[in-house]
Amino acid sequence: MKENGWSHRYAQRVMEEYKRFTFLAVVAGHPVSPSDPVDQVWHLHLSYTRSYWQDFCPNILQTPLHHEPSRGGRSEQLKLGGGHRTLGQ
Q1: Which residue, of 11, 36, 75, 76, is most buried by count of CB atoms within 10 Å of its CB?
Q2: Cβ contacts of residue 77 below 8 Å, gap of 6+?
Q3: Of 28, 26, 45, whose CA–CA distance to 37 is shortest?
Q4: High-pLDDT (> 90) share of the chain, %
């Protein structure tokens, strides 16, 4: 919230989207790509390595979920089947 200058309400909404995204990433059966705000939350969560790898992945997702880098942009969106829905601040 502080790092991105987000309001508490907006940060809560992005956290809910992050939870939905990680569930989708595990069950979709194909690659998925997060919105930019969700990706920012994911990057921050990954920086808390013990929380992410020792608690979240095994206990919540019940599988490892790696963050694979991509080139991003329009070509990545098209490859993954369209654009992203964005959250309005």
Answers
A1: 11
A2: 33, 83, 84
A3: 45
A4: 70
Domain spans of the chain, in order of start: 8-79
Question: Token pair of 19, please?
Answer: 């939870």
Check residue 44 and report its DSSP letter. H
Distance CA 52, CA 49 (A): 5
DSSP-derived secondary structure letter, 82: S
Comparing CA positions, the residue from 64, 10, 76 lying closest to residue 40 is 10
H-helix segments, 1-72: 8-27, 36-47, 49
Q: Which residue has the tokens 């939870």?
A: 19
pTM of model > 0.70? yes
With contact defined as beta carbons under 8 Å apart, do 60 and 21 qualify?
Answer: no
